[in-house]
Design goal:
The complex is a heterodimer. Chain A is an alpha/beta fold. Chain A has nine helices and ten strands. Chain A has a single domain, classed as Rossmann fold (3-Layer(aba) Sandwich), CATH 3.40.50.300. In chain A, strands 6-7-8-3-9-10 form a six-stranded mixed β-sheet, sandwiched between helices. A four-stranded antiparallel β-sheet of chain A has the order 2-1-4-5, with helices on one face. In chain A, β4 and β5 form a beta hairpin. In chain B, the strands form two sheets. A two-stranded antiparallel ribbon of chain B has the order 1-4. Chain B has a two-stranded antiparallel sheet with strand order 2-3. In chain B, a hairpin with a 2-residue loop joins β2 and β3. In chain B, α1 runs parallel beside α6, α2 packs parallel to α5 and α6 runs antiparallel to α9. Classes of the chains: A alpha/beta, B mainly alpha. The interface between A and B is medium-sized, with 37 and 23 residues.
Chain lengths: 255, 294
C-alpha cells in the first residue's frame, strides 16, 4: 500500500475571512526529512498546529500511519507517536530539566489508570530520561530549573521532550532560530542521527543553508497555499519560489 | 493543655485539611479557586443531614459525604476547563455565593436556623470530644498529607504540574487537560468535604454563614502564606493565620484588612510563600539547621 507516514489532503482552515491554510496537499514518506518553508505568515505553523491537533481543520483530511487524525485532540495524536516542538519555547519552568523530560516520558501512562499509582521518581524512569538528555547534550544540566536555561538549551529541551513522545514522527518548529553557529552544527548532526534511528522528521525552517543541507524534500508555502514541492536543488531554481522570497522581476542576482 | 487551646488547635487542624485540598487545585494543578469554603460547606451540610435526618454515624456517612463532594467537585470543576485565571477566579467566587444561598434559602437545609443536634463522633463506643477529637483530626490531616505527598510522586501529579506550567505543551505530551484538571478538583473538594464533615461533628451545628466568601479568602491566605505547591505550606499557613487572631483578639476587627495587606506583601516579596522555592526561610533558616547538624 502507501508508504507515506503522513498524508495531508486538501487541508484548509479559515479564521473568519482569513484563509490561513487553503487546500494544501503533501505527503511525508517514512524515514525522510521534509522541510516546510515559506515567508512569514505563509501558514507553516498553522499547518503544524493542524497536524498536531491544536486546531481542527475547516476542510480536508490528515492521515497519520493510515489513520485519520484530523479533529482528534492533541493529546490523542501525541499518543500515536507524533512529537512536536514549539516555535516559542514552552518549558515547564519551575520543574527541572529532567522532570520536563519525565513529563513527556509519561505519554503512555496518562490515558491509563496506572498513572494514579506509578511513580515517576523511579530510577528506571530517570535513567531513560537521562539518556534522552544526553542525546541532546543537556545531561549536565538535568537538575537545573528549566526556567533558568538560555534559549539554545531550551530548544534542545524541546527536542528531548518531543523525542520522548514522537517515536514515529517529529515536528520541529524553527528549532534552529536564535542558535549560535556551533549549536546549529550540533543540532544538524542530531537531526541526522534521529533520521538514522528511523524517525521521520518534518521541520519548519527559515535558515536556508540549514534547510537545503538537511532536507530530503522541501514544500514551500505562501499565503496559505502550497507553492512548490521537490528536492532542495529544484526548489532553489524554482521561479515562483524566488519570486515569493525576493519579489518579481529578479533583475538583481538572486543567489 | 487548656480546653481553649485544644479548641483552637482542632479548628486549625480542620482548616489545614481543607487548605491541603485547596493546595491540590491551586498549588499543584494551577487552577484558581476562590470558592473553596463552598466545598467545605457541602461536606459539613452533607454530614449534618446524613447524621440528623438519616441517622447515620460519622463513619458510615463519611464515604457518602466524600462521594457527594467528589461529584460536586467534578460538576463545579467543569468551568475550569473553559475559563482561565481571572475569569475562573470570578466564577468560583460566584459558586461560593450560590452554594451559600442554597443553604440559606432552601428549607431542606434548615434555612437561616441551620442544622443543629449533630451527634458527636463515636469511636470504639466512646464519644470523641476535647483531646480525643483533636487526635482524630490529626490522624485525618496525616492521611491527607500522605495522599498529597503520594500525589506529587505519581504520573497523574506530574501531569497536573505540567498543566500548571504550560497547558499547550502538556497536551502535546499526551496529557488530557479535562481528565487531570477534574482529578485535581475532585481530590481538592474531597479533602474540603472531609474537613467539613469533621467541622460539623465538632461544632454540632452548621449554618450558612459559616461557609461564606471571607472564609474562602482565609483559606487562600493560609495557602499563599504557607507556600503554594509545598507539602507543609497548608499546615504552616493554617497554624499562623489560625493562631494570630487569638493572640491579637483586640484587633479582630482589622483581620480582613490584615489578610489583604499580608496577601499583597507576600505576593510582592515572597511569591512562593514561607516554604516556597527561594523564600527567606528556605535560603536563610533551613541552611542554619543543616549546618548545625553536619
Amino acid at each position: 500500500m502507501n508508504s507515506a507516514l503522513l498524508e495531508v489532503k486538501d487541508l484548509s482552515i479559515h479564521f473568519g475571512g482569513l484563509h490561513a491554510v487553503d487546500g494544501v496537499n503533501f505527503e511525508i514518506q517514512r524515514g525522510e526529512i521534509l522541510g516546510l518553508l515559506g515567508p512569514n505568515g505563509a501558514g507553516k505553523t498553522v499547518t503544524f498546529n493542524l497536524i498536531s491537533g491544536v486546531y481542527k481543520p475547516t476542510a480536508g483530511e490528515i492521515r497519520f500511519d493510515g489513520k485519520r487524525i484530523d479533529g482528534l485532540p492533541p493529546y490523542v495524536i501525541a499518543g500515536l507517536g507524533l512529537g512536536r516542538t514549539f516555535q516559542i519555547v514552552k518549558p515547564f519552568s519551575t520543574l527541572t530539566v529532567l522532570e520536563n523530560v519525565l513529563v513527556a516520558r509519561g505519554i503512555h501512562r496518562y490515558p491509563a489508570a496506572s498513572c494514579l499509582w506509578t511513580s515517576w521518581r523511579s530510577r528506571k524512569e530517570a535513567g531513560e530520561a537521562m539518556a534522552l538528555l544526553e542525546r541532546v547534550g543537556l545531561a549536565d544540566l538535568a537538575q537545573r530549573k528549566a526556567g533558568l536555561l538560555p534559549l539554545g538549551n531550551l530548544r534542545r529541551l524541546e527536542i528531548a521532550r518531543a523525542l520522548a513522545v514522537g517515536h514515529k514522527l517529529l515536528l520541529l518548529d524553527e528549532s534552529f532560530s536564535g542558535l549560535r553557529h556551533e549549536e546549529i552544527t550540533q543540532l544538524e548532526a542530531l537531526i541526522r542521527a534521529i533520521q538514522r534511528d528511523g524517525i521521520t522528521v518534518l521541520l519548519i525552517e527559515h535558515n536556508m543553508r540549514v534547510a537545503m543541507g538537511l532536507c530530503d524534500r522541501i514544500v514551500v508555502m505562501e499565503h496559505g497555499k502550497k507553492l512548490a514541492e521537490g528536492p532542495p536543488a529544484a526548489i532553489q531554481q524554482d521561479e515562483q519560489v524566488i519570486e515569493a522570497y525576493l519579489g518579481r522581476k529578479g533583475e538583481a542576482n538572486a543567489s | 493543655m487548656s480546653s481553649y487551646a485544644i479548641t483552637i488547635l482542632t479548628l486549625i487542624v480542620i482548616q489545614a485539611i481543607v487548605v491541603c485540598g485547596l493546595n491540590v487545585i491551586v498549588g499543584y494543578a494551577g487552577q484558581i479557586s476562590l470558592g473553596h469554603a463552598a466545598f467545605f460547606g457541602i461536606g459539613a451540610y452533607s454530614a449534618a443531614l446524613l447524621s440528623t435526618q438519616a441517622g447515620l454515624s460519622f463513619w458510615s456517612a463519611l464515604p457518602i459525604v466524600l462521594l457527594i463532594c467528589a461529584l460536586c467537585g467534578l460538576l463545579l470543576g467543569l468551568p475550569s476547563l473553559r475559563l482561565k485565571q481571572d475569569f475562573l477566579a470570578i466564577t468560583t467566587i460566584g459558586i461560593n455565593f450560590i452554594v451559600q444561598a442554597v443553604f440559606l434559602y432552601v428549607p431542606f437545609f434548615g434555612g437561616a436556623l441551620g442544622i443543629s443536634g449533630i451527634p458527636r463522633i463515636r469511636f470504639l463506643g466512646e464519644a470523641l470530644k476535647g483531646p480525643s477529637f483533636l487526635y482524630l483530626c490529626l490522624a485525618c490531616l496525616a492521611l491527607v498529607m500522605a495522599i498529597c505527598w503520594f500525589f506529587t510522586r505519581i504520573f497523574a501529579g506530574l501531569a497536573c504540574f505540567a498543566l500548571r506550567e504550560e497547558e499547550s505543551a502538556a497536551t502535546s505530551m499526551g496529557i488530557s487537560p479535562v481528565r487531570f484538571k477534574l482529578l485535581a478538583f475532585m481530590l481538592g473538594t474531597v479533602f474540603a468535604g472531609l474537613g467539613g464533615s469533621l467541622y460539623a461533628h465538632y461544632m454540632r451545628f452548621v449554618s450558612a454563614e459559616d461557609f461564606s466568601f471571607p472564609l474562602s479568602i482565609t483559606f487562600m491566605s493560609m495557602l499563599v502564606l504557607g507556600g503554594m505547591g509545598t507539602l507543609l505550606g497548608p499546615l504552616v499557613g493554617a497554624l499562623i493565620l489560625g493562631a494570630l487572631p487569638e493572640v491579637f483578639r483586640p484587633l479582630a476587627e482589622f483581620r480582613i484588612l490584615f489578610y489583604g495587606l499580608m496577601l499583597l506583601l507576600m505576593i510582592r516579596f515572597q511569591p512562593g510563600g514561607i516554604l516556597g522555592e527561594s523564600s527567606l526561610v528556605r535560603k536563610r533558616i533551613f541552611p542554619m539547621f543543616l549546618r548545625r547538624r553536619s
